[in-house]
Amino acid sequence: MARGWSFYRDFLPVVVIIGNECNDMGSLTLFKAATLQGMNNHVFVAYAYALATTVLLPITFFHRRSRVVPPLSFSIISKIVLLGVIGSSSQILGYAGVSYSSPTLASSIGNLVPAFTFILAVICRMEKLAAKSRSSQAKVIGSIISIAGAFVLTLYKGPSIIKAHTHLSLLLQQPLNFLKSEDASWAIAGILLTADYFLTSVWYILQVNILKVFPDELTLVFFYNVTATILSTAVGFFSVPNASAWKIGLNISLISIVCSGIFGKLMSNVVYAWALHLKGPVYVTSFKPLQIVIAVAMGIMFLDDTLYVGSVVGATVISFGLYAVLWGKATEEIEEDVGSLESPTIENAPLLQSLRTETSEKNSTYDNEGQSCGFIVPQDDPVMLIPVCLRMEPALFFPQRGTNLSS
């Protein structure tokens, strides 16, 4: 019987990953607001990683003392260092791109992550791609639909459904006007964000590879943050030698650093590591197109933006694509469970295999006290050997002294 529905494996990952996407968009929003107040993006990344590492230090210490965890070999440490190089580089490029543009553009270009990740996962043999498999078809088609829906939402407006109101206070509008910035350097931002999201896909793939041999998400995230803190701080000091730029006051800059460090670099990375270990990189990245939906929703709620038909159509298309990917992944897991149950068990029972081979080669009769009795062992089902043999005379299994069974 195939595995049934599980809250832990089927429902919880959906909830926490969607929560992570909301968290990421909120962090980008606060970061952009902080950059408008003069905060440097290199300083932001270094402080956020340093805060996450500081908070994780005692948690990881007690975590490793309270349970049996796998040892850290040189190979694993090397991969974690490489993960830190890729992750910190991705963050530096990404936040630089957002500083040139807006979180909305970042979420739009982020729709490339599922495509990048799927291609890399197939190349690294982490995902199966069979043209005739329904699960593979659903994952591919669903990914394409989600990406297409995100670009529809980004590029097509259409008639307005809910118009903006002009009575919204300027106090709320001004800190968030960057979401509607039109004079930013979009070309530079596009290049930086594309490089960021390609490295993000590589980061997902490498993290899954590490978790296969080192299944301790919390320790992995801690040492990753340590590496990223060292690298981002070195890059920050080199890029921003002015000491005054590293002074953070009690303002939006401090709030953005705390939120990004605690909810982004710490909680978000732990959740992503857990989900990657449980469901794989393609499943996790299939939720990325939701970021543009979240960005539009934030614009409507906090900026009093106008809701257009294109936003509704794009969000609907993304939902269908996401459902197709989730269905394909669930179907693939069911197929794997059924396949493991239907696979021959003969390899796992060498004694039974030898007994079957030995008896089937004879396929003869045995005369016990003048009575002939024969049996045939089914070639295609070794399990049937037991009920067939139980019908034989006891002397076949417990021969008396001097009885010759080899004739």
UniProtKB/TrEMBL annotation:
Which controlled-vocabulary keywords does the entry list?
Membrane, Transmembrane, Transmembrane helix
Cross-referenced SUPFAM superfamilies: Multidrug resistance efflux transporter EmrE
Recorded GO cellular component terms are: membrane
Q: What Gene Ontology terms describe what this protein does at the molecular function level?
A: transmembrane transporter activity
* InterPro entries, sorted: EamA_dom (IPR000620), EmrE-like (IPR037185), WAT1-related (IPR030184)
Q: How is the protein disposed in the membrane?
A: Multi-pass membrane protein
Q: Where is the EamA domain?
A: 27-154
Please give the chief subcellular localization of this protein: membrane
**UniProt-annotated location(s):** Membrane
What top-level branch of life does the organism fall under?
Answer: Eukaryota
TM segment ranges: 44-62, 74-93, 105-126, 138-156, 184-206, 218-240, 252-275, 282-302, 308-326
Q: Which family does the similarity line name? A: Belongs to the drug/metabolite transporter (DMT) superfamily. Plant drug/metabolite exporter (P-DME) (TC 2.A.7.4) family.
- PANTHER family reported in the protein's UniProt record: WAT1-RELATED PROTEIN
Q: What is this protein called?
A: WAT1-related protein
Q: Mind giving the lineage of the organism this protein is from?
A: Eukaryota, Viridiplantae, Streptophyta, Embryophyta, Tracheophyta
